[in-house]
Amino acid sequence: MEQKKDKIVLHTCCAICSGYPISYLQDMGYQVYSYFYNPNIYPSQEYQKRLDAERTLCAHLGCELVEAEYEPQKYFDYVKGLEHEPEKGKRCDKCFEMRLIKTAEFTKLKGINNFTTSIVISPHKSFDKLTSIGNRIAEEYSLNYLAIDFKKKDGFLKTNRISRELGLYRQNYCGCKFSLR
Description:
With about 180 residues, the chain is α/β, with parallel strands linked by helices. It has a single domain (about 5-180), classed as Rossmann fold (3-Layer(aba) Sandwich). It has six helices and five strands, in the order E-H-E-H-E-H-H-E-H-E-H. Helix 5 (about 125-140) links the parallel strand 4 and strand 5. Helix 1 (about 15-25) runs parallel beside helix 2 and helix 1 packs across helix 6. The longest helix is centred in the middle third of the chain and has 20 residues, at about 90-110.
């Protein structure tokens, strides 16, 4: 009898960023749930393109995709007062926090102990900052945040290769209305 794999919820921001992390976690023996919660993505057409690409990726990798509700107004309310912050500033920290809290809530609801995020694969995002946010939230929810720097060992190149092979949609900005500036 095959032993059940440990489960993990991977917050996914887009298919470009999540291709390698999903396959990496599967190779580690995890049953991966791709949790697509991104109320920050603007406009709604962009959100739909990214969600469609994530659907294609998850179908290809045999990974269950969980599509959370698209709540752009909740995002705008959450970052209110930080609209003029620069990229990589306090607004981005709040955005990461919002999405990882929602991921932790889903993880807890499903009785899963582990979660992480694909955001860390981006060379434009701070692994240390995301790890700090993830660990704090994990402690609040009595969960385990897996701090894996998916950029290591050519992870960013590998995730780009996967997306090219599958012809996935490739965005040219982080996602929020403010990153379009």
